[in-house]
Amino acid sequence: MRKKVTIVGAGNVGANCALRVAEKELADVVLVDVVEGVPQGKGLDLLQSGPVQGYDVLITGANDYEPTANSDVVVITAGFPRKPGMSRDDLLMANYEVVRTATEQAVKYSPNCILVIVTNPLDAMCQTAYMVSKFSKNRVVGMAGVLDTARFRTFIARELNVSVENVTAVVLGGHGDTMVPLVRLSNVSGIPLTELLDKATIDALVTRTQNGGAEIVKHLKTGSAYYAPSAATIEMVESILKDKKKVLPCCAYLEGEYGINGLFVGVPVKLGAMGIEQIYQIKLSDEEQALLNKSAGAVKELVAVIRSKM
Ligand code: APR
Q1: pTM for the whole thing?
Q2: Domain tally, the chain
Q3: Which of 219, 225, 178, 221 is nearest to 84 (CA)?
Q4: Over the stretch 5-54, which tens digit does the pLDDT of each residue have?
Q5: How close is the Cα of 102 to the center of ligand 1, in Å?
Q6: Does residue 205 belong to any structural domain of this protein?
Q7: Can you tell me whether residue 51 is helix, strand or coil?
Q8: In sequence order, what are the beta bridge partners of 271?
């Protein structure tokens, strides 16, 4: 029997996720969006790429959740971009409403799914999906670290003129400018990054990574990144569907790990058929722990705003 993936939000990230699932022939796809016609139209268009690309997956679009029943994975990308004049808290509450509704509906029809959250502000949206779904913590996971490390790996590879495939990078913390790239654990085919680049260069690459999303927004002007975010999301979805047990940096619910309790924060996890099957704790230096605490503090503030308005 084929696997089934629902993607909520048929915008830039959602539609590209659907395309990547199809091109990898991972599962049948249901695209869901509030805008009438958009998920249906994009679904049909993607379906008609099948004969050319050589994939045999069914892709459909809907404005309700009934067709999503019994999905193995539900990816939530639905949300609003930040508009001029909107505060961070306004955006937070707008997307909270979207993710709350999407989660409620999705889990009603797919009570056994794994939820992969993509909507920003990511860490707070994971918390929303976790609270609303009442799923066990292993079944709610957020996409951030795979994208953040992909950006860091890209910049390192470009700087050294080596293959991106040889570059390994580790990033902890919230998705945003407080993320904590762990330079000491980043390497090129096992060679520590610190032996290949001087501190000033590494610092510049770290800063560029922390502002990676904003750099793309600045170019695009009317939207945010979607090719790399969708690629990162589908690496996670593939690891779950195929039970590959990849170790990836993901947003996970912590209960004491890294001294953080009751919050979603980015950490290395093992992703398999059960969702988050293990959280890896890395021994941190005092400086790294302080940066992680700062990052977790920023997530905590957003979660407090949601809780106060619930
Ligand atoms: N239910 C379903 N879909 C919704 C809802 C809802 N309640 N509200 C909005 N949407 C849809 C919109 O109609 C739109 O098609 O979500 C889609 C969002 O698409 P885009 O605006 O193109 O945004 P995108 O670039 O895909 O980003 C989506 O992912 O990376 C994050 O920060 C990004 O939070 C953003 C999300």
Answers
A1: 0.97
A2: 1
A3: 221
A4: 999 999 999 999 999 999 999 999 999 999 999 999 999 999 999 999 99
A5: 11
A6: no
A7: helix
A8: 246, 276
Of these residues, 4, 139, 175, 300, which one is catalytic?
175
Tell me which residue has its CA closest to atom 31 in ligand 1: 119
Does 219 participate in catalysis according to the annotation?
Answer: no
Residue 16: inside a domain: yes
Domain of residue 129, residue span: 4-142
Q: Enter the tokens of residue 164.
A: 């991106």
How far apart are the CA of 14 and the centre of ligand 1, in A?
Answer: 7
**107 domain residue, yes or no:** yes
pLDDT tens column, 67-107? 999 999 999 999 997 776 777 678 899 999 999 999 999 99
Chain-centroid distance of CA 264 in Å reads 12
296 within 8 A of 174, measured Cβ to Cβ = yes
- C-alpha atoms less than 13 angstroms from C-alpha of 50 in its C-beta half-sphere: 18
CB 124 within 8 A of CB 299: yes
Contact residues of ligand 1, CB 6 A cut-off? 8-14, 32-35, 77-79, 81, 98, 101-102, 118-120, 223-224, 226, 229
Structure confidence at residue 172 (pLDDT): 94
Question: Which whole-number Å values give the CA distances from 248 to 121, 229, 241, in the listed order?
Answer: 20, 14, 15
In the three-class reduction of DSSP (H, G, I as helix; E, B as strand; rest coil), residue 168 is classed as strand
